[in-house]
Amino acid sequence: MELEFEPHPLLRSPHLQTVLSSRLARLRDGVGAALAAGAQQVRIPCRDGVVLQALVNRPAGAPATEALPRTPLVVVIHGWLGCADSPYVRRASAALNRAGFTVARLMLRDHGGTAHLNEELFNAARIDEVADAVNWLAEHYGGGACGLLGYSLGGNFVLRLAGHHHTSPRFLTALAVCPVLDPKAAVAALDRGWVGYQRYFLGKWRRAFAEKQAAFPERYDFAEARRLSLVSTLTDYFVSRHTPYRDADDYYARYTLDRDFLATLKMPVRVLATEDDPVLPVEHARALLGASGDAEVVTLVPHGGHCGFIEDLRLRTALDAWLSRFFAERLAAG
Hints:
Elements (H helix, E strand, L loop, with lengths): L13 H9 L9 H6 L2 E6 L5 E7 L15 E5 L9 H12 L3 E6 L20 H14 L4 E6 L1 H11 L7 E7 L5 H10 L2 H21 L15 H12 L5 H6 L15 E6 L8 H10 L5 E4 L17 H13 L3
Parallel strand pairs: 3-4, 3-5, 5-6, 6-7, 7-8
Antiparallel strand pairs: 1-2, 2-4
């Protein structure tokens, strides 16, 4: 199933696509209030005392008292330093919910105002707790078949979940939109690319550190981190002081996805990437496509920026209807 997407000529810029999707599209987003009104906030117990949080929306008309909805479940995972209310997550979740899916917007550790829930810091190698969380959601909300949807770093997580030994067999498919495949190359691209992206992520990461320090002032002091001006140097600082890994390369290796990872998959996956992604080098998606030799595994779209796919001047995204068809087809047998 191909994504037919041709942006309006005025929206062809990959930078405009990226910014509209993650920031300015919020101004035209009318689905947030309805989604928030119907969301159930749940705290999810994971291994080692870890607690993660999710917002769950059942389809309109589903009985609120029903113990286990009989509708398919899609778990949506945001990108790095995003949250359950990031515009791209909210729009996709609303579209899936309208199409009859139960949708759970899972927040990674320390994201979306959850810094106080766990003392240890988030790092992208923490996949086991995310597997615990999606399994819990499947057990409590997955009366039908279940699917995984992730954006950017969230796309990396859902691809790893698709090959994780602990992921529930209720999950039948995973879709990764513009996923981080080679984190080391992604960080290098941020540091040498448009300074606006670098400042955006540095600013959000510093705010995340400030939230963690406020939650655990006796444990953390990030004064030195605030003085670092590159994503790579801040990563070096973070890895050396707050992870068990030898160095940044060791850390990146824990969640790098290359052609070998295809052999670990326990369910069908789809990688949707763009040729003009201004944040992530497209070469890694091309390498996966070459390794799989299957357009049903990796789809490269000429335009769309990073998680954009904004198709017209009303700021509508081509992903909305396509996501609903994708999961309807993949989860129908379940």
